[in-house]
UniProtKB/TrEMBL annotation:
<dbReference type="InterPro" id="IPR043137">
    <property type="entry name" value="GGT_ssub_C"/>
</dbReference>
<dbReference type="GO" id="GO:0006751">
    <property type="term" value="P:glutathione catabolic process"/>
</dbReference>
<feature type="binding site">
    <location>
        <position position="72"/>
    </location>
    <ligand>
        <name>L-glutamate</name>
    </ligand>
</feature>
<feature type="binding site">
    <location>
        <position position="20"/>
    </location>
    <ligand>
        <name>L-glutamate</name>
    </ligand>
</feature>
<feature type="binding site">
    <location>
        <begin position="49"/>
        <end position="50"/>
    </location>
    <ligand>
        <name>L-glutamate</name>
    </ligand>
</feature>
<protein>
    <submittedName>
        <fullName>Uncharacterized protein</fullName>
    </submittedName>
</protein>
<dbReference type="InterPro" id="IPR029055">
    <property type="entry name" value="Ntn_hydrolases_N"/>
</dbReference>
<dbReference type="GO" id="GO:0005886">
    <property type="term" value="C:plasma membrane"/>
</dbReference>
<dbReference type="GO" id="GO:0036374">
    <property type="term" value="F:glutathione hydrolase activity"/>
</dbReference>
<dbReference type="InterPro" id="IPR000101">
    <property type="entry name" value="GGT_peptidase"/>
</dbReference>
<dbReference type="Pfam" id="PF01019">
    <property type="entry name" value="G_glu_transpept"/>
</dbReference>
Length: 81
C-alpha cells in the first residue's frame, strides 16, 4: 500500500505517485491502458493523478478533519460525499 514510507514527523504514509506516470504499451497496476500522452515520463514533470488527500483546518489552524481514499481509478468517487 502506498510507497511503504511513513513520515517520522507526521506519521503520514507517503504515496506511490510515480506509478501514475504512463509508459506506452505498459498497463497500470489496475490493468488499465496507459495511453495518455500528457502523463508520459519526462524530466521535471509531475504525474497527473486522482489523489485528493485533504487536511481541513479551522481559522486558528487546528486540524478538524483528514480525508483521503485508496482505490486508484476510483479515488474521486470514493472521497466525494
Amino acid at each position: 500500500f502506498g510507497s511503504g514510507i511513513v513520515s517520522e514527523r507526521t506519521g503520514i504514509l507517503m504515496n506511490s505517485g510515480m506509478d501514475d506516470f504512463a509508459i506506452p504499451s505498459v498497463t497500470s497496476h489496475y490493468g488499465l491502458p496507459r495511453t495518455n500522452k500528457n502523463n508520459f515520463i519526462q524530466p521535471g514533470k509531475r504525474a497527473m493523478s486522482s489523489m485528493v488527500p485533504s487536511i481541513l483546518v479551522s481559522p486558528t489552524g487546528d486540524v478538524k478533519m483528514v480525508i483521503g481514499a485508496s482505490g486508484g481509478p476510483k479515488i474521486l468517487t470514493s472521497t466525494s460525499f
